[in-house]
Amino acid sequence: MSLEQEIREYALDVGFDEVGITTAEPFKQLKQALQERHEHYYWVSDGLLELRSASDPRNILPSAKSVVVLLYDYYKLSYPPSLLGKIGKAYLSRLYVSKKRMFGARLKLVRDFLEQKGMNVGIRPAMAERQAAVRAGLVSFGYNTFVYAPGRGSYVVPVAIAVDRELAPTQSTSSSQECSENCRKCIEACPTGALYEPYKMNPLNCIAFHTYATGNFPDVPEQIPYSVRENMGTWIYGCDVCQDVCPRNQKKQKHELPPDGYLMEKSKEITLLNLLHMDDRFYLEKVQPMLYGYIWNKSILQRNAAIALGNTGDEGYVDELARSLNDPEEMVRAYASWAIGRIGGGKGRSLLEKQGSKDDSELVKMEVKNALELA
Ligand code: SF4
Ligand code: SF4
To answer: What are the start and end residues of each CATH 1.25.10.10 domain in the chain?
Structure first.
C-alpha cells in the first residue's frame, strides 16, 4: 500500500469523511483577495488568524512539500428544532480542536500517525483550509463562499496539515459540482446583504461575524450596527441562512437523520431567556461545553439573546428584558434597552425613560436615546 493510501485509510478509520492531498505551493488567490478586500478582512489578515500568512503553507512549516487535507462532515445527526435558527449547525456540532474532545482527538490521531511515518507537520491556527481542500479536489466553492463536498453539501469542515514529504496530489473536482450560473438564492436570502456578489461576502455585515466577533475580538467594531441588529432574527451564534436555502444542500437536509442525544438533552435548558439571565455557573456548566469556539465572555451571548428577543417583537418579553436593565454588565443593559425599544409600546417607553435618567454608562444612555426613537 502506498503512503498516500495508508494516510487515507487511517484518517477515514478514525472518523474523517474524505482525505485529499495537494502541493505546498502558496494559495495566490487568497493572498490577492485579502489585499484587494483589506477593508473587509483587515482584522484577520494580520491579527487574530494571520490569514495573510496562511496563504503560504511554508509560513506554517518552512520545509513543507505537501498538504494533507481532512474533511469532516458535521451534519450526521439531526439538531433539536428549538436550537435551529438560533445557533449555527457548525457550533452545535462541537468541532472543538482540543484533543480532549472528539474532533480534536481525531485530529491528534492523524497528526501522530503522520509523525510516526517520519514527517514533520504544521497545523492550525493559520492555514488556508478551504483553499487547500479545493486544490486537493475534495470540495468546490459555492457563491455563498462556503465549500461544498459532492454528496454532502456545505456542512463540512476541512482541516489542512502541512507535511515535509512529497506526496502524490489528489485530483480536482469536476465543474459539474459548481453552482448553477443563474442561481442567486443565497445572495437574495442573506438578511443583511453581507453576500453581495458571487464568491464575495463582507464579514463586517454578516450576522455570524457580529454574533461572535463584535465586542469580543481585537480590532473589530465594539458595537453591532443597527442595520444588522434588526435583521439578525433570532440568531445568537452563527447564521446558516445562506447554506440552508441552497439547492446544493437540499438533499442533505431532506435526509432523515437520527437525533443528537447530547443536544436533545442540553437543548431543554438553552432558551433565549435562560441565556439572557444566565449566571457564571450556568454559562460554564451548561453553555460553554456545548458551544465550541469563539465566545468566551458570557455577556456576548447575553447581548445576542437580548437582540433575538427584541427581534421577536413580542411584548411578553418586555418584563424579562427590564430585569436585564439591572445587569452589572453595561453591554447587557445597553442591548436590553435596544431590544425594549425594538419591541416598542408604552411600557417599554417608560422603562427606557427611567433607565436613561439613572444609568451612569454613556453606552447605555446612548442606546436608551436611540431606543426611545424606535419605541
Ligand atoms: S451567514 Fe447569514 S448574514 Fe452571513 S452571509 Fe450567510 S446569510 Fe448572510
Ligand atoms: S444558493 Fe445557489 S448560488 Fe448560492 S451557493 Fe447555493 S447553488 Fe450556489
So the answer is: 271-375
